[in-house]
Amino acid sequence: MPKLDESLLTGLPPFSRLSRQQIREILDRAAPKRFPEGSAVFREGEPAERFYLLLDGFIRVVRTTPAGEQVIALHIPPGQLFGIAPAIGRKTYPATAVCASESLALGWPVRHWEDFAAKYEGFASETYRTLGARLDEVQVRLAEIATQAVEQRVAAALLRMVNQSGRKGPEGIEIGFPVTRADIAEMTGTTLHTVSRLLSAWERDGVVKSVRRHITVTAPHRLVVLSGAAAG
Predict the structure, then answer these.
(1) What is the DSSP letter of 219?
(2) Residue 126 maps to which CATH number?
(3) Is the same domain home to 16 and 52?
(4) How far apart are the C-alpha atoms of 38 and 33, rounded to whole Å?
(5) What tens digit of pLDDT does each residue of 93-118 get?
(6) Torsion of CA 94, 97, 98, 103, to 10 degrees
(7) Which of 109, 125, 129, 131 is nearest to 26 (CA)?
(8) Of the residues 144, 160, 176, the one at which a domain ends
(9) Range of 210's domain?
(10) Hey, is 190 helix, strand or coil?
(11) What are the contacts of 201-208 at 24+ separation with CB within 8 A?
(12) Cα distance between residue 103 and residue 37, in whole Å
């Protein structure tokens, strides 16, 4: 893989306060790697040996419940660090990172974490800000599961994915990575049957279009209304 230019990282939060020379120092310690769609970068409970920066693609964060069920906690978009177990004082990964699409990431051995955090201004503080935003997202979803009807939860999940990855197309805004109805069921704490029923009804009504794991929101405002967000 060609040597990466520092300009690729200058606008990203962990590196926004650093000089090009400092970014070069960090890049020179990184190992780039491509991951195919559906592969696990690491698994929950494994020793945390590396942390990563996602350059391209999307990461699906999956947790396992005490009952052994898998739950999709959130999606990580390009430009963010992940696998940052040392930032929360862990020696093992707290979740599994699955590539929702083909992905390209930079990886560093965890032994560099403390050095980067101490030496490079903003590296740690911006990372903790990102962690805070992810925690907020998880808390919002837990509140949705506790208080909202299934239809609202599914609509809200689709809107989140659109906001994170949406790209405009001729028929509407397409979610930027493959997503199955089973994935949506895991995200919203409901059943595959219920998600299939809702999406089929919304397709008939012209709200969404779903073709081979690719979902396009054809009427975004109507989906906002279905999520209950418009009422707030």
Answers:
(1) -
(2) 2.60.120.10
(3) yes
(4) 15
(5) 999 999 999 999 999 999 999 999 99
(6) 180
(7) 109
(8) 144
(9) 148-231
(10) coil
(11) 202/226, 208/158
(12) 7
Of residues 231, 209, 204, 232, the one with CA closest to residue 220: 209
Residue 1 lies in a domain: no
Please check whether residues 52 and 86 belong to one and the same domain: yes
Same domain, 42 and 139: yes
Structure tokens that stand for 88 in this block = 């929360």
Residues shown for the chain:
232
- DSSP H or E stretch at residue 43: none
Per-residue pLDDT band at 2 (split at 50, 70, 90): low
Contact of 16 with 126, CB cutoff 8 Å? yes
Q: What are the angstrom distances between the C-alpha of 173 and each of 102, 170, 217? A: 20, 8, 5
- Burial letters 11-35, b for 16+ CB under 10 A, else e: ebbbbeebeeebbeebbeebeeeeb
**Per-residue pLDDT averaged across 11-19, rounded?**
88
The DSSP call for residue 40 is E
Which residues have a Cβ under 8 Å from the Cβ of 37 and sit 6 or more positions away?
99, 100, 101, 102, 103, 178
| Amino acid identity at 6 | E
Task: State the CATH number of the domain containing residue 166.
Answer: 1.10.10.10
The amino acid present at 8, given as its one-letter code, is L
| Tokens describing residue 189 | 């704490």
Geometric angle at alpha carbon 147, from 62 and 149, rounded to 5° = 85
Q: With cut-offs at 50, 70 and 90, classify the pLDDT of residue 141.
A: confident
